[in-house]
Amino acid sequence: AAIEKGNYRHFMQKEIFEQPTVVAQTLRSYLRPVEMQVALPQIDFDISAIDRVTIVACGTSYYAGMVAKYWFEQFARVPVDLDFASEFRYREPVLQPGGLALFISQSGETADTLAALRHCKAEGQTIAVVVNVPTSSMAREADLLLPTHAGPEIGVASTKAFTCQLAVLAALAAHFAVKKGRLDREAEAEVVRHLLEAPASLNAALAHDDEIAAMAHLIAPARDVLYLGRGPDFPLALEGALKLKEISYIHAEGYAAGEMKHGPIALIDEAVPVIVLAPSGPLFEKTVSNMQEVRARGGKIVLISDKAGLEEAGEGCMATIEMPQVHPLIAPLVYAVPVQLIAYHTASVKGTDVDQPRNLAKSVTVE
Ligand code: G6P
Known about the structure:
Layout: H1 11-17, H2 19-28, E1 31-32, E2 37-38, E3 53-57, H3 59-76, E4 80-84, H4 85-88, E5 100-105, H5 111-122, E6 126-131, H6 137-141, E7 144-147, H7 160-179, H8 185-206, H9 209-219, E8 224-229, H10 234-248, E9 251-256, E10 273-277, H11 284-295, E11 300-305, H12 307-313, E12 319-322, H13 331-350
Parallel strand pairs: 3-4, 3-5, 5-6, 6-7, 8-9, 8-10, 10-11, 11-12
Antiparallel strand pairs: 1-2
Helix pairs in contact: 2-7, 2-8, 3-7, 3-10, 7-8, 7-13, 8-13, 9-13, 10-13
Bound molecules: 6-O-phosphono-alpha-D-glucopyranose.
């Protein structure tokens, strides 16, 4: 049956709003809510024996991989190599025997990612894939298939596939942590509880749609926009900048908040909106001092944080968007929503073709 937009103006908008449902649907295959355990669909190798993970992907899927690197290292203490598929293929990577190579792709057909997968397979790595199309080449060639259940994604700019990838990767990182003896029963149950809350938190984030639509009028006139984040929310800053570039054609850059003073700070003036992604937590104070550096140069800040964060640092911002208070393992999923809505509404203000942005393809099956 043809996929319809229903009451939505664009597929991208529909797909953004589907996220609570499809993330819940995806998590269902990875969590046992009665036992409060994480569980993978099918697995016939010993995770506790894996000492290195190599993550390879392109585009938005690469940023999901970047979040996963933070999670794997922080929660499971497993070292992770991460690369764009187009770089990985040609840089003669050193692969550790017995390693796991993890490929992330909505389509399962991106040419560079598929070539990287075949290279790793030939080198004897165990191949795991997080893909949204279960009949795809990558799905067929993997040892371990970790499907996302986002359903068909029509908008060229990936949204719901991304949050579903994060959901799978969070469960996978937690599973590794359990197998590596880093999460006891109680801590595992706690993680599962937080993951089960993700769909409700996504809904809470979506409730800010009107507010973000109004705010988009402040972003639309900009020539450049800077996104800042730290830790697992740094990749979200990169994803935010990518989304804005893709569909609104505004130049945007994502940066690690602490690295801003080594370059991008030179760009800051009243005309450059700076979008800060900063859930409250151990890194928050550091980001607040980066915000002060921006403010001292006349920069206009949009702060995306939770209640505690906004109470502390919301004053003097051009705009603020309040996210629910969430566990660090859920924050990147939840903060993806405002990032997507900012791009979507800014593109709407500019009147660009949101679902079919110029020069871009949904799936890049040629080099
Ligand atoms: C294209 C799409 C992006 C996507 C990337 C990777 O550039 O426009 O939205 O993130 O390919 O695609 P994949 O199917 O491998 O996730």
